[in-house]
Amino acid sequence: MDKYGLIGYPLGHSFSITYHNQRFADEGINAKYFNYEIPSIDNLTEVLDSNPELKGLNVTIPYKQKVMEYLDYISPEARAIGAVNVIRVIHEGKNTILKGYNSDVIGFTQSIEPMLEEYHKKALILGTGGASKAINYGLKSLGLETIFVSRYRRPGTICYEDITPEVVKEYNVIVNCTPLGMYPKTEECPFLPYEAMDEKNILYDLIYNPDETLFMKKGAEHGANVKNGLEMLLLQAFASWEFWNGKEK
Questions:
Q1: 160 — phi, psi (to 5°)?
Q2: Rounded to 10 degrees, what is the CA torsion of 143, 67, 11, 136?
Q3: Which residues are catalytic?
Q4: How many CB atoms lie within 10 A of CB 56?
Q5: How many Å apart are CA 162 and CA 149, to the nearest integer?
Q6: For a pLDDT cut of 70, what percent of the chain falls above it?
Q7: pLDDT one-digit tens code per residue, 131-185
Q8: What is the model's pLDDT at position 13?
Q9: pLDDT at residue 14, rounded to an integer
Q10: Cα dist. 89→47, 65, 69, 145, 226 in Å?
Q11: End-to-end Cα spacing for the chain
């Protein structure tokens, strides 16, 4: 039986384990997906050595960047983003070859692209963590100009207090890459002039629990088009399977 899994720390109830095991059952695939909660990225070799049937891994926080030094190959896209969240494990004799990819950018671009109109030319990316790098890469590949928003003053970013009504009209695509509004703290949302938004704004939230975050709700009240991160999650899970089975472009 083939094995697949998720590495990260800590791992609660992950979407990946439910999705992939359900898919294996539905499609009659002789495989199982496991959570490998490892307190250090150094434990990756232990996971690989003790699971010779392992064919692929997903990578979540805090290892999307740290894992890169363990890989034999990194796709140009993942290298440009600076993060890997899918690893294909290939066994050749006694050697194990690890190939790294990024499915975040695929899931995101496929999910947001149908929402874009010709007047969507600039985007705000809320947050500067690992996911924001893939979102930035994806938006730029779709032809949008981007700027990062941070709580702190740093080069190449603006702060939330800099976002005026004029800014949200010019940068009319806004992607939330922060945990603000995630269950159980559903009463929180990024500090923005929501009252200045209209039907030309897109508010995309990487959060999918709850279904409608306060960020989305406040935008929708003023006519903005809103979407949560569930479709992106499904699309990137599907992309993982393609990478694991060597169907990458």
A1: -60, -35
A2: -10
A3: 64
A4: 23
A5: 9
A6: 99
A7: 899 999 999 999 999 999 999 989 989 999 999 999 999 999 999 999 999 999 9
A8: 65
A9: 76
A10: 12, 18, 15, 36, 37
A11: 26
Written as six digits, the tokens of 121 are 């030319």
Q: For residue 193, say if its preceding peptide bond is cis, omega within 30 degrees of 0.
A: no
pLDDT in tens, 122-131: 999 999 987 8
| 198/225 Cα distance (integer angstroms) | 9
Look up tokens 């969240």; give the residue. Answer: 85
Tokens of 47: 């996971």
CB atoms within 10 A of CB 185: 11
CA distances from 165 to 42, 154, 169 (A): 47, 22, 7
CA atoms within 13 A on the CB side of 87: 31
Quick count: other Cβ atoms within 10 Å of Cβ 241? 17
Amino acid identity of residue 142, one-letter, is: L
Class of residue 62 by CB neighbours under 10 A (exposed 0-12, middle 13-18, buried 19+): middle
CA–CA separation, 14 and 149 (whole Å): 28
Do you find a cis peptide bond into 10, omega within 30 degrees of 0? yes
Mean pLDDT calculated for residue range 216-245: 96
Query: Is the pTM above the cut of 0.70?
Result: yes
β-strands 31-37, 2-8: how paired?
Answer: parallel
Give tens-digit pLDDT for 31-45.
999 999 999 999 999
